[in-house]
Q: What sequence folds into this?
């Protein structure tokens, strides 16, 4: 299992936020994936930023988020824009 904060990019605050959103273990985070985990965070805190999405993906890959490949960053950016745009219109 393991503690979430033992992963790269996951500090105590992000760990608390993930737990509040219902993600309590490394295994669960890996199964849920970065996009769904981010949606769960966004549901409880619409001000959550894209860097959290990058951080979660990096944690799943066990790398610093700065080292995500460009294609993955673009994919995550597009997801973020779609999610926030959809919710903006739902108002």
A:
């Amino acid at each position: 299992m393991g503690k979430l904060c033992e992963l790269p990019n996951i500090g105590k605050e992000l760990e608390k936020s993930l737990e509040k959103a219902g993600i309590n273990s490394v295994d669960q985070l890996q199964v849920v994936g970065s996009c769904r985990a981010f949606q769960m965070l966004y549901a409880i805190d619409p001000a959550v930023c894209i860097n959290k999405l990058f951080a979660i993906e990096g944690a799943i890959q066990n790398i610093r988020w700065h080292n995500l490949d460009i294609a993955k960053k673009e994919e995550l950016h597009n997801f973020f824009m779609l999610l926030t745009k959809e919710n903006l219109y739902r108002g």
Summary: Helices lie at 12-21, 26-32, 34-44, 50-61, 70-90. The longest helix spans residues 70-90. The mean pLDDT is 93.
